[in-house]
């Protein structure tokens, strides 16, 4: 048996860098740490544009991966998703097809690809679970991205049925952590709000949150997600996807801060903004710009399958994860994606 070479596509992004962090900091040989003989490759787009079949093949020929965690994707916030639907559809279809087909052709032993809870139907019974992906059209705001991602699940099944490939996929909820995209116009909610709040504090200006603050979301800290990807790569052997959703058992302070009631896995955007204000140390008041679109109101996803398979997992408390993220942002402001 050849020694494992694990190629992480999109290795320079938020999730890829989190996997790198976990592999480098967890004790060697532990459940999530590096194992003897393993080589981990964290590839960026500069090593090969995965929209291009030839460049994808060259990347595989260079590293000869035995396993692939496929994260590379055109990713964006709500407004970019709404504006560039065809680009999101086409780029992601090309990237996914090249990665999966080259993995098949070069006999990669296992591929774990990355979907998103955006793939689920807009009109669906909550909570989301792994059986509901294809039961109706996705929300129109990101249908390009969502359809491209859904096709990965379709392809995984087809590769398994026709060629016996061991390809599967993970479905994370909203991810945040160090190395996120903190761009003010094109980021996900947490990094965008952290950046805005930081600027409001620095410039002594109001902190304005887009939308009503009412939509509910589930978040997962990137370092926790990284461990779950490593677990899937090593211990999960089924084509069916697994939802990777963070259920942070909140500390008392977090409970008070986030006023978690009922569906305790969901937090409102306002609750997130409150927590960011605290982590950044912003003293002023902030307002909500209700003229901006809210996006989907809620989309709770169940992590029952994950927890049943893993037998429990210690999630990082939300406020601790937020502090780590804010701290990273402040220390890396000059080089972060802003
Ligand atoms: P980032 O935007 O942080 O990183 C994207 C990565 O993909 C980068 O390494 C980038 O390389 C690479 N990439 C983009 N286009 C290409 C290309 N054409 N060829 C090769 N590499 C490319 O993304 P995240 O880490 O946030 O996302 C990782 C995965 O998780 C994605 O599949 C995403 O859909 C999924 N996901 C993310 C969520 C989130 O909240 N962030 C939620 C749910 C799912 P480079 O640095 O060189 O540009």
**Distance N terminus to C terminus?**
44 Å
- The dominant shape is globular
The poorly predicted ranges are: 248-264
Q: Structural class of the secondary elements?
A: alpha/beta
Please write the string of helix (H) and strand (E) elements.
Answer: EHEHEHHEHEEHEEEHEHEHEHH
Trace the largest sheet across and list its strands: 2-1-3-4-5-10
Bound molecules: NADPH dihydro-nicotinamide-adenine-dinucleotide phosphate
Helix content: 40-55%
Domain NAD-dependent epimerase/dehydratase: 6-240
Keywords: Isomerase, NADP, Oxidoreductase
Pathway: Nucleotide-sugar biosynthesis; GDP-L-fucose biosynthesis via de novo pathway; GDP-L-fucose from GDP-alpha-D-mannose: step 2/2
Protein name: GDP-L-fucose synthase
Could you characterize the architecture of this molecule?
- One of its GO terms (molecular function) is GDP-L-fucose synthase activity.
- This is GDP-L-fucose synthase.
- With 338 residues, this protein is α/β, with parallel strands linked by helices.
- It contains eleven helices and twelve strands.
- It has a six-stranded parallel beta sheet with strand order 2-1-3-4-5-10, sandwiched between helices. Strands 6-9 form a two-stranded parallel sheet. A two-stranded parallel ribbon has the order 7-12.
- The chain binds NADPH dihydro-nicotinamide-adenine-dinucleotide phosphate (NDP).
- The site of NADPH dihydro-nicotinamide-adenine-dinucleotide phosphate has 26 residues, from helix 1 and strand 6.
Question: What is the compact description of this entry?
Answer:
This protein is of the alpha/beta class and 338 residues long. The protein has helices at residues 14-25, 53-63, 78-83, 85-105, 143-163, 189-203, 222-235, 252-258, 269-280, 304-310, 318-331, and strands at residues 5-9, 39-42, 67-70, 110-114, 167-172, 174-176, 207-210, 216-217, 219-221, 242-244, 267-268, 286-289.
């Amino acid at each position: 048996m050849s020694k494992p070479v694990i190629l992480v596509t999109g290795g320079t992004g938020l999730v890829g860098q989190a996997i790198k962090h976990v592999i480098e900091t967890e004790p060697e040989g532990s459940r999530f740490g590096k194992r003897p003989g393993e080589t981990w490759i964290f590839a960026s787009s500069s090593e090969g544009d995965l929209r291009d079949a030839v460049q994808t093949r060259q990347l595989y020929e260079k590293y000869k991966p035995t396993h692939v965690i496929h994260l590379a994707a055109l990713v964006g916030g709500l407004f970019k998703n709404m504006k560039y639907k065809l680009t999101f559809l086409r780029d992601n279809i090309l990237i996914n097809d090249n990665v999966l087909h080259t993995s098949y052709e070069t006999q990669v032993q296992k591929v774990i690809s990355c979907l998103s809870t955006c793939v689920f139907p807009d009109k669906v019974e909550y909570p989301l679970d792994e059986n509901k992906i294809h039961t109706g059209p996705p929300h129109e705001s990101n249908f390009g991205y969502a359809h491209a991602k859904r096709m990965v699940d379709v392809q995984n099944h087809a590769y398994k049925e026709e060629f016996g490939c061991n390809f599967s996929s993970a479905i994370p909820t909203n991810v945040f952590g160090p190395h996120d995209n903190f761009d003010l116009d094109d980021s996900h909610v947490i990094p965008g709000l952290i950046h805005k709040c930081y600027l409001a504090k620095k410039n002594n200006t109001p902190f304005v949150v887009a939308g009503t603050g009412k939509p509910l979301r589930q978040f997962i800290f990137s370092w926790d997600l990284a461990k779950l990807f490593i677990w899937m790569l090593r211990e999960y052997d089924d084509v069916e996807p697994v939802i990777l959703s963070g259920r942070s058992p909140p500390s008392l302070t977090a409970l008070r801060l986030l006023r978690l009631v009922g569906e305790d896995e969901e937090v409102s955007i306002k609750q997130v903004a409150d927590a960011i204000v605290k982590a950044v140390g912003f003293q002023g008041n902030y307002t909500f710009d209700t003229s901006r679109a809210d996006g989907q109101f809620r989309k709770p996803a169940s992590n029952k399958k994950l927890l049943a398979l893993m037998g429990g997992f210690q999630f990082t408390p939300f406020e601790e994860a937020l502090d780590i993220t804010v701290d990273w942002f402040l220390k890396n402001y000059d080089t972060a994606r802003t």
